[in-house]
Design brief:
By secondary structure, the chain is of the alpha/beta class. It has one domain: Rossmann fold. Helices cover about 40% and strands about 15% of the residues. The chain is built from five helices and six strands, in the order βαβαβαβαββα. Helix 3 links the parallel strand 3 and strand 4.
Amino acid sequence: MPKIAIVTTTARRGRQSLNVARWIRQEAVGRGDADYEIINISELELPVWDEATPPAMKRYGEKITKRWSTTIDRYDGFVFIASERHPSIPGALKNALHHLSPEFHDKAAGFVSYGSSGGAEAVEHLRATLAGMQMAHVHEPVAMSLFTDFRNDGDFAPTRSSGNRLHGMLDELLTRTRALEGAREKVSA
């Protein structure tokens, strides 16, 4: 069964990405089509990337980078929660991605985004970053608005429509994840 990581993308206090991740996992686990786990970026405590060699060489000197590499190697696909910041992705996610490269090759990514414009620009920036890391991605993200999927107090309250789009995105993510399995096997052979 494929292993899918649901990745929070911000470490700031008061963030909603962990609540969004919990919702995704709750919806996804009932499907029974993959193992879904949450990776909470704020728990990683990754320093600003400063390894001596480029990530493409996979010769990490820092224990924390080696641990991060082992974590990502375990997964076949990813759901990234793209919360919009100025209008891009949060620095914590960008930094975490910069630590690695081969660990993401030939794996699939899906997106659940939110922001005043549904996080559309954050997803586009993330797509470009992941494409450079040789990842495939789903076509349609689950774009949630601060005006419809969050209450006036800022708490996360996804609409039924967002739930339906989530299941469609997960279907496409798993199709791509399974299709890329053969490519990963060829590289490791």
